[in-house]
Amino acid sequence: MNGHIRSNNGGKIMSIDTIMNAITRHEKELIRLEKLMADELKKEADKRKKISDLERQIRQTKSQSTFKTKANQIQRLENEIAAIIKKKAEINKKVADRRSKLVAENQKLNKEQSNVQKKEKMEQEKVRKSYEAKINSLTNQIESSLVLDRQNIDSVLPGTSSDIPEHDVFISHASEDKEEFVRELAETLTNVYGLNVWYDEFSIKWGDSLRTVIDKGLSNSRYGVVVISRNFIRKGWTNYELDGLFQIEMTKGKTILPIWHDITKDEVQQFSPSLAGRKALNTAMFTIDEIAQELKNLLD
Known about the structure:
10 helices; single chain; alpha/beta; 2 domains; 5-stranded parallel sheet; two-stranded antiparallel ribbon; Rossmann fold; 7 strands
């Protein structure tokens, strides 16, 4: 994360890179000082060993001159050790100062990085809201267009509405799911339970306008059974039908009856959180006859 940020030090402008460069300098200087300290410690240890050897030699000698020479050597070494101790103290002071500065720079870096992250998050939120606003605007335009289309159809074909029977259920599904589930469900609802079902194989005739017939089927059905599957969420027409059912539900109340087919809750959640939150029948848990009976009970 780069970019310039204002520090608390008199309003001075400073970048994160500048702070990180300062941290690197402090760390390198600490490494140098620690090496110096190690060198001084080795020197001190060597000189103390020499003093120990000289003291042992003094205890063993009987010569006055040798004693005096060794004592002078010991005094010189002790003076050198005193100088080393002084230098160690100076190094320790510099190390403490550098570490204090390093801590301060790290705290400053954490603060500035946090500020940049907050700023980036705010920018991302602005972009997200902008996209949401555009999507909502496009959705409103599409819904307005659908309303106008339906009004135009009704004005051109005034007798069509009464020619289409009132359906108990509209089945919205992906064509890939017909063989495995949907066709048998539609036939069971129609033939066994006597329901009036809008199902494309029953309701769309050769030469019909798909959009017109589907719109009429949606608006003239009491409920919309939506067979949500992996195939369903990938299709264009199914999303068109689902949008229509949501629009109808906004004015007529509960309309959509979801059935989950070969799909997980997480997948439904990603596709439509509002659908994932509704009670649904699952083909993994209910037979076709049990699902049909539930629909019949609801309609009764």
